[in-house]
Automatic annotation (TrEMBL):
Phylogenetic classification of the source organism: Archaea, Methanobacteriati, Methanobacteriota, Stenosarchaea group, Methanomicrobia
Alphabetical list of InterPro entries matching this protein: 4Fe4S_Fe-S-bd, 4Fe4S_Fe_S_CS, CobQ/CobB/MinD/ParA_Nub-bd_dom, P-loop_NTPase
Gene3D superfamilies assigned: 3.30.70.20, P-loop containing nucleotide triphosphate hydrolases
Name assigned to this protein: ATPase
Recorded GO MF terms: oxidoreductase activity
Amino acid sequence: MKIVVASGKGGTGKTTVSANLAYALARRGGVTLVDCDVEEPNLHLFFPGESEEKGVPVPVPAIDPERCTLCGECGHFCRYGALTVLKDRVLFFAELCHSCGGCLLVCPSGAVTEVGREVGVVNTSHPLPGLTLVSGVMHEGEVLAPKVVAAAKEAAGEEGRIVYDASPGVACPVIETLEGSDFCILVTESTPFGLHDLDLAVRAAAALGVPAGVVINRSDGEDETALTFCSEHDLPVLMTIPFDRGVAAVQNRGGLIARDLPGWEERFAELWVEVARRCEVRA
Ligand code: SF4
Ligand code: SF4
Protein backbone atom coordinates (compact mmCIF):
# COMPACT_ATOMS: atom_id res chain seq x y z
CA MET A 1 0.00 0.00 0.00
CA LYS A 2 1.35 3.39 -1.00
CA ILE A 3 0.27 6.49 0.81
CA VAL A 4 1.25 10.14 0.44
CA VAL A 5 1.59 12.63 3.27
CA ALA A 6 0.98 16.09 1.82
CA SER A 7 -0.06 19.59 2.85
CA GLY A 8 -1.10 22.70 1.05
CA LYS A 9 1.95 24.59 2.29
CA GLY A 10 5.16 24.22 4.26
CA GLY A 11 5.48 24.24 8.03
CA THR A 12 2.24 22.43 8.84
CA GLY A 13 3.94 19.34 10.24
CA LYS A 14 3.78 17.10 7.18
CA THR A 15 7.30 15.76 7.66
CA THR A 16 6.65 15.21 11.37
CA VAL A 17 3.62 13.07 10.54
CA SER A 18 5.56 11.08 7.89
CA ALA A 19 8.48 10.45 10.23
CA ASN A 20 6.35 9.42 13.20
CA LEU A 21 4.15 7.20 11.08
CA ALA A 22 7.21 5.52 9.57
CA TYR A 23 8.71 5.00 13.02
CA ALA A 24 5.54 3.28 14.27
CA LEU A 25 5.38 1.08 11.14
CA ALA A 26 9.08 0.20 11.31
CA ARG A 27 8.34 -1.29 14.74
CA ARG A 28 5.43 -3.24 13.25
CA GLY A 29 6.83 -5.28 10.38
CA GLY A 30 8.57 -2.68 8.26
CA VAL A 31 8.05 0.31 5.99
CA THR A 32 9.74 2.20 3.19
CA LEU A 33 9.75 5.95 3.76
CA VAL A 34 10.34 8.05 0.65
CA ASP A 35 11.39 11.68 0.88
CA CYS A 36 9.80 13.22 -2.24
CA ASP A 37 10.44 16.78 -1.04
CA VAL A 38 13.43 16.77 -3.37
CA GLU A 39 14.19 20.49 -3.16
CA GLU A 40 14.55 20.33 0.60
CA PRO A 41 14.66 16.74 1.82
CA ASN A 42 14.97 16.50 5.59
CA LEU A 43 13.73 13.09 6.73
CA HIS A 44 17.36 11.95 7.01
CA LEU A 45 17.65 14.37 9.96
CA PHE A 46 15.17 12.19 11.89
CA PHE A 47 16.82 8.99 10.70
CA PRO A 48 20.57 9.48 10.19
CA GLY A 49 22.62 6.63 8.75
CA GLU A 50 24.98 5.54 6.01
CA SER A 51 23.36 5.72 2.60
CA GLU A 52 23.99 4.45 -0.89
CA GLU A 53 23.80 7.09 -3.61
CA LYS A 54 22.56 6.71 -7.18
CA GLY A 55 22.50 9.47 -9.80
CA VAL A 56 19.32 10.55 -11.58
CA PRO A 57 20.19 11.20 -15.23
CA VAL A 58 17.86 12.85 -17.75
CA PRO A 59 18.34 12.87 -21.52
CA VAL A 60 19.57 16.14 -23.02
CA PRO A 61 20.60 16.93 -26.59
CA ALA A 62 24.13 16.69 -27.93
CA ILE A 63 24.64 18.40 -31.28
CA ASP A 64 27.00 17.07 -33.91
CA PRO A 65 28.60 20.14 -35.55
CA GLU A 66 29.55 18.05 -38.60
CA ARG A 67 25.93 17.37 -39.40
CA CYS A 68 24.33 20.60 -38.16
CA THR A 69 23.39 23.01 -40.97
CA LEU A 70 22.47 25.78 -38.48
CA CYS A 71 18.94 25.79 -39.89
CA GLY A 72 17.51 27.09 -36.60
CA GLU A 73 14.64 24.57 -36.31
CA CYS A 74 15.67 23.32 -32.86
CA GLY A 75 15.98 26.86 -31.46
CA HIS A 76 12.48 27.73 -32.76
CA PHE A 77 11.03 24.58 -31.32
CA CYS A 78 12.50 24.74 -27.81
CA ARG A 79 9.97 26.62 -25.73
CA TYR A 80 12.28 26.67 -22.72
CA GLY A 81 15.00 28.71 -24.41
CA ALA A 82 17.58 25.95 -23.94
CA LEU A 83 18.83 26.17 -27.53
CA THR A 84 20.05 29.25 -29.38
CA VAL A 85 21.27 28.89 -32.95
CA LEU A 86 24.00 31.40 -33.82
CA LYS A 87 25.69 32.04 -37.17
CA ASP A 88 28.42 29.54 -36.50
CA ARG A 89 27.18 27.21 -33.72
CA VAL A 90 24.32 26.14 -31.50
CA LEU A 91 24.39 27.14 -27.84
CA PHE A 92 22.83 24.76 -25.32
CA PHE A 93 21.82 25.87 -21.81
CA ALA A 94 21.50 22.61 -19.94
CA GLU A 95 19.75 24.01 -16.83
CA LEU A 96 16.85 25.23 -18.97
CA CYS A 97 16.32 21.94 -20.80
CA HIS A 98 13.18 19.99 -19.82
CA SER A 99 14.27 16.81 -21.62
CA CYS A 100 11.24 16.79 -23.90
CA GLY A 101 13.19 15.27 -26.80
CA GLY A 102 11.58 17.65 -29.28
CA CYS A 103 14.80 19.04 -30.74
CA LEU A 104 15.83 15.53 -31.69
CA LEU A 105 12.54 15.06 -33.52
CA VAL A 106 12.54 18.35 -35.42
CA CYS A 107 16.16 18.36 -36.56
CA PRO A 108 16.07 17.71 -40.33
CA SER A 109 19.76 16.74 -40.45
CA GLY A 110 19.91 14.09 -37.75
CA ALA A 111 22.45 16.26 -35.92
CA VAL A 112 20.88 15.80 -32.48
CA THR A 113 21.49 12.78 -30.28
CA GLU A 114 20.74 12.39 -26.56
CA VAL A 115 23.19 12.08 -23.71
CA GLY A 116 22.52 11.69 -19.98
CA ARG A 117 22.87 14.59 -17.53
CA GLU A 118 22.57 14.15 -13.75
CA VAL A 119 19.94 16.42 -12.17
CA GLY A 120 19.88 14.84 -8.74
CA VAL A 121 20.55 11.72 -6.70
CA VAL A 122 18.58 9.14 -4.78
CA ASN A 123 19.99 8.05 -1.42
CA THR A 124 18.90 4.77 0.14
CA SER A 125 19.62 3.82 3.74
CA HIS A 126 18.43 1.45 6.46
CA PRO A 127 18.64 3.63 9.59
CA LEU A 128 16.48 1.40 11.84
CA PRO A 129 15.47 -2.25 11.78
CA GLY A 130 12.34 -2.34 9.61
CA LEU A 131 12.93 1.08 8.06
CA THR A 132 14.24 1.77 4.57
CA LEU A 133 14.65 5.47 3.85
CA VAL A 134 14.79 6.62 0.23
CA SER A 135 15.56 10.31 -0.28
CA GLY A 136 15.37 12.17 -3.57
CA VAL A 137 17.80 15.11 -3.67
CA MET A 138 17.71 17.56 -6.55
CA HIS A 139 20.99 19.28 -7.47
CA GLU A 140 21.00 23.02 -6.87
CA GLY A 141 19.80 25.16 -9.76
CA GLU A 142 17.97 22.32 -11.49
CA VAL A 143 14.33 22.49 -12.55
CA LEU A 144 13.30 18.88 -13.06
CA ALA A 145 12.04 18.04 -9.57
CA PRO A 146 9.39 15.60 -10.89
CA LYS A 147 12.13 13.46 -12.50
CA VAL A 148 13.91 13.13 -9.15
CA VAL A 149 10.60 12.33 -7.41
CA ALA A 150 9.89 9.64 -10.01
CA ALA A 151 13.38 8.16 -9.54
CA ALA A 152 12.94 8.07 -5.74
CA LYS A 153 9.55 6.35 -6.11
CA GLU A 154 11.05 3.84 -8.50
CA ALA A 155 13.93 3.10 -6.14
CA ALA A 156 11.41 2.44 -3.33
CA GLY A 157 9.64 -0.18 -5.47
CA GLU A 158 6.03 -1.28 -5.12
CA GLU A 159 6.15 -3.84 -2.37
CA GLY A 160 4.94 -3.56 1.22
CA ARG A 161 4.05 -0.41 3.09
CA ILE A 162 5.31 2.75 1.48
CA VAL A 163 4.97 6.30 2.82
CA TYR A 164 5.78 9.17 0.43
CA ASP A 165 6.51 12.53 2.04
CA ALA A 166 5.48 15.09 -0.61
CA SER A 167 6.78 18.62 -1.19
CA PRO A 168 4.74 21.42 0.34
CA GLY A 169 2.15 23.03 -1.93
CA VAL A 170 0.47 21.48 -4.95
CA ALA A 171 2.99 22.03 -7.76
CA CYS A 172 4.28 19.42 -10.25
CA PRO A 173 6.45 17.44 -7.78
CA VAL A 174 3.38 16.86 -5.57
CA ILE A 175 1.33 15.70 -8.54
CA GLU A 176 4.15 13.30 -9.46
CA THR A 177 4.15 12.03 -5.85
CA LEU A 178 0.37 11.52 -5.80
CA GLU A 179 0.28 9.64 -9.12
CA GLY A 180 -0.48 5.96 -8.54
CA SER A 181 -0.85 6.29 -4.75
CA ASP A 182 -3.63 4.60 -2.79
CA PHE A 183 -4.37 7.31 -0.25
CA CYS A 184 -3.34 10.81 0.74
CA ILE A 185 -3.02 12.07 4.31
CA LEU A 186 -3.36 15.85 4.27
CA VAL A 187 -1.81 17.63 7.23
CA THR A 188 -3.31 20.97 8.16
CA GLU A 189 -3.64 23.53 10.90
CA SER A 190 -6.98 24.90 11.96
CA THR A 191 -6.42 28.40 10.64
CA PRO A 192 -8.09 30.18 7.68
CA PHE A 193 -4.75 30.18 5.80
CA GLY A 194 -4.25 26.52 6.56
CA LEU A 195 -7.70 25.72 5.17
CA HIS A 196 -7.17 27.69 1.97
CA ASP A 197 -4.06 25.63 1.25
CA LEU A 198 -5.80 22.45 2.31
CA ASP A 199 -8.55 23.18 -0.21
CA LEU A 200 -5.99 23.27 -3.05
CA ALA A 201 -4.42 20.03 -1.91
CA VAL A 202 -7.84 18.34 -1.64
CA ARG A 203 -8.59 19.32 -5.23
CA ALA A 204 -5.25 18.02 -6.48
CA ALA A 205 -5.81 14.64 -4.81
CA ALA A 206 -9.41 14.47 -6.09
CA ALA A 207 -8.31 15.32 -9.64
CA LEU A 208 -5.98 12.31 -9.57
CA GLY A 209 -8.60 10.03 -8.01
CA VAL A 210 -6.61 9.56 -4.80
CA PRO A 211 -8.85 9.39 -1.70
CA ALA A 212 -7.80 11.67 1.15
CA GLY A 213 -8.18 12.20 4.88
CA VAL A 214 -6.96 14.90 7.23
CA VAL A 215 -4.61 15.11 10.20
CA ILE A 216 -5.09 18.31 12.20
CA ASN A 217 -1.77 19.39 13.66
CA ARG A 218 -1.08 21.88 16.46
CA SER A 219 -4.70 21.81 17.53
CA ASP A 220 -5.66 24.20 20.31
CA GLY A 221 -8.90 22.28 20.80
CA GLU A 222 -10.92 24.80 18.80
CA ASP A 223 -11.06 23.07 15.45
CA GLU A 224 -14.64 23.87 14.42
CA THR A 225 -13.56 25.61 11.20
CA ALA A 226 -11.43 22.66 10.12
CA LEU A 227 -14.08 20.14 11.16
CA THR A 228 -16.74 22.01 9.20
CA PHE A 229 -14.47 22.15 6.15
CA CYS A 230 -13.80 18.41 6.40
CA SER A 231 -17.45 17.51 6.76
CA GLU A 232 -18.40 19.76 3.82
CA HIS A 233 -15.77 18.07 1.65
CA ASP A 234 -16.51 14.58 2.90
CA LEU A 235 -13.01 14.24 4.33
CA PRO A 236 -12.45 12.01 7.35
CA VAL A 237 -10.43 13.52 10.21
CA LEU A 238 -7.98 10.71 10.89
CA MET A 239 -6.02 12.17 13.79
CA THR A 240 -5.60 15.33 15.83
CA ILE A 241 -2.23 16.31 17.28
CA PRO A 242 -2.59 18.85 20.10
CA PHE A 243 -0.51 21.94 20.57
CA ASP A 244 0.78 21.11 24.00
CA ARG A 245 4.07 21.57 25.77
CA GLY A 246 5.14 17.95 25.77
CA VAL A 247 4.58 17.53 22.02
CA ALA A 248 6.17 20.91 21.21
CA ALA A 249 9.25 20.14 23.33
CA VAL A 250 9.91 16.86 21.51
CA GLN A 251 9.34 18.45 18.11
CA ASN A 252 11.49 21.50 18.85
CA ARG A 253 14.48 19.31 19.52
CA GLY A 254 13.83 17.33 16.33
CA GLY A 255 12.59 14.25 18.17
CA LEU A 256 9.78 11.85 17.34
CA ILE A 257 6.69 11.84 19.53
CA ALA A 258 6.03 8.22 18.49
CA ARG A 259 9.36 7.29 20.08
CA ASP A 260 9.63 9.78 22.91
CA LEU A 261 6.10 10.19 24.33
CA PRO A 262 3.99 7.36 25.71
CA GLY A 263 0.95 6.38 23.64
CA TRP A 264 1.94 8.10 20.38
CA GLU A 265 3.53 5.11 18.69
CA GLU A 266 0.19 3.31 19.05
CA ARG A 267 -1.72 6.33 17.78
CA PHE A 268 0.36 6.49 14.61
CA ALA A 269 -0.04 2.74 14.14
CA GLU A 270 -3.80 3.23 14.44
CA LEU A 271 -3.62 6.01 11.87
CA TRP A 272 -2.17 3.50 9.40
CA VAL A 273 -4.82 0.89 10.26
CA GLU A 274 -7.52 3.46 9.62
CA VAL A 275 -5.99 4.46 6.26
CA ALA A 276 -5.64 0.78 5.27
CA ARG A 277 -9.27 0.15 6.19
CA ARG A 278 -10.40 3.01 3.98
CA CYS A 279 -8.29 1.73 1.07
CA GLU A 280 -9.77 -1.76 1.45
CA VAL A 281 -13.34 -0.46 1.55
CA ARG A 282 -12.63 1.40 -1.66
CA ALA A 283 -10.92 -1.53 -3.44
S1 SF4 B 1 15.03 18.39 -25.18
FE1 SF4 B 1 13.28 19.81 -25.31
S2 SF4 B 1 13.69 21.27 -23.69
FE2 SF4 B 1 15.62 20.22 -24.05
S3 SF4 B 1 16.69 21.48 -25.53
FE3 SF4 B 1 15.54 19.95 -26.70
S4 SF4 B 1 13.60 20.96 -27.20
FE4 SF4 B 1 14.56 22.15 -25.56
S1 SF4 C 1 17.70 21.63 -36.07
FE1 SF4 C 1 19.49 20.33 -36.32
S2 SF4 C 1 20.51 21.16 -38.11
FE2 SF4 C 1 19.06 22.71 -37.45
S3 SF4 C 1 20.24 24.04 -36.12
FE3 SF4 C 1 19.30 22.51 -34.80
S4 SF4 C 1 20.83 20.88 -34.65
FE4 SF4 C 1 21.42 22.18 -36.36
